[in-house]
Specification:
The chain is built from 12 helices and no strands. By secondary structure, the protein is mainly alpha-helical.
Length: about 250
């Protein structure tokens, strides 16, 4: 295990990303456990931080951690040092605390336990997926391949391919396929599939290009009902299991 870590993580320059990734997941799981204990009013759990009666949301602590970890990471020049790993881990923990209350920041009101609060969990899951792809060695739009090809003097053809990949990913996002579009930035084939398939009902693409009552709109609605909703129910169940079920009223 130690040899694998050295070969795949440390020697490839991914130590800081690995520390960020682990700390991000650990902090998210911890803070969700904490808020669920507070919600259940468990006596043995410390509870909210309320100095002087003011409720301090954990997004505040997350911002402090991000500032300290970010500045510390800029100050450390050795990517493989313990200080570099510690600053990356602190930044990851802070980012988890901030994104866990992303919906609160977005709506500028406390929607943590409402249906709107699911946005925070979705953003966290997307972040984990993208960081996981980076940790596996994938780069958005083949950045490493473009850099090496540019150094060799043959980057124009690859640049065109990468621009096409970017365009396909943007189309997939406009069609309401968030996961397909984001993962398509790393894997071009996924972006292609998302771009050529029907848009989701209500997406910017569908609103602009599918006329009300048209065949494409009917097919999109039928596909949403048949394929998307079962997957969405499963994703919601997993999110509720990890992060807690929102209140009925939101």
């Amino acid at each position: 295990m130690g040899a694998w870590f050295t070969r795949e993580i440390a020697d490839t320059g991914r130590l800081r990303l690995f520390c960020f990734f682990v700390a991000f997941i650990a902090a998210f799981l911890f803070i969700r456990f904490s808020v669920r204990m507070i919600r259940k009013r468990v006596r043995w759990w410390p509870g909210n931080v309320t100095p002087g009666g003011r409720h301090i949301h954990h997004v505040v602590f997350g911002l402090v951690f991000m500032c300290v970890g970010g500045i510390g990471g800029l100050a450390v020049t050795d990517d493989s040092s313990g200080w570099a790993a510690a600053s990356a881990a602190l930044f990851g923990a802070g980012m988890a605390l901030v994104l866990d209350e992303f919906a609160l920041v977005f709506h500028l009101k406390d929607v943590y336990w409402t249906e709107q609060g699911r946005l925070s969990v979705e953003v966290v899951f997307v972040t984990v997926a993208l960081c996981g792809l980076l940790l596996l060695g994938l780069r958005p739009l083949g950045a490493d391949a473009f850099a090496s090809s540019k150094d060799a003097g043959g980057g124009w053809g690859l640049a065109v391919v990468l621009l096409i990949d970017l365009g396909l990913a943007v189309v997939a996002l406009l069609k309401g396929k968030t996961w397909t579009g984001l993962i398509g930035l790393f894997i071009g084939l996924v972006a292609l599939v998302g771009a050529i398939r029907l848009a989701r009902p209500g997406s910017p693409w569908a609103r602009r290009r599918y006329k009300p009552g048209s065949r494409k709109e009917r097919r999109a609605v039928a596909r949403e009902r048949r394929y998307r909703r079962p997957v969405q129910r499963l994703a919601t169940a997993v999110g509720d299991l990890i992060a807690g079920r929102p209140s009925i009223r939101g």
